[in-house]
Amino acid sequence: MGILSNLFKKKDQAAIHDSEDEITAVIAATLASIDEEEETVAAITAAIACVLGKNTGEFIVRNIKRTSEIDSLWALQGRMQLMR
Description:
By secondary structure, this protein is mainly α. It has one domain (10-83). Helix content is 68%, strand content 0%. The chain has helices spanning 2-7, 13-52, 73-83.
């Protein structure tokens, strides 16, 4: 009977409160990272608009990928030519 009573025992209120705090913390962290990503996309879009000399409404940023920071000057120049 001891096993069945453990299975159906109500959770301790402190444990429930702790798990709610953990869930709240995860949700807050997720929302903060989404806000950071939106700010990063906005900054990149603004930088592209400045380089191209266009309004942000004239183009759409569809995809942003990280590149290695150790690119050659040839690669950087080629990338700039593709954007213009």
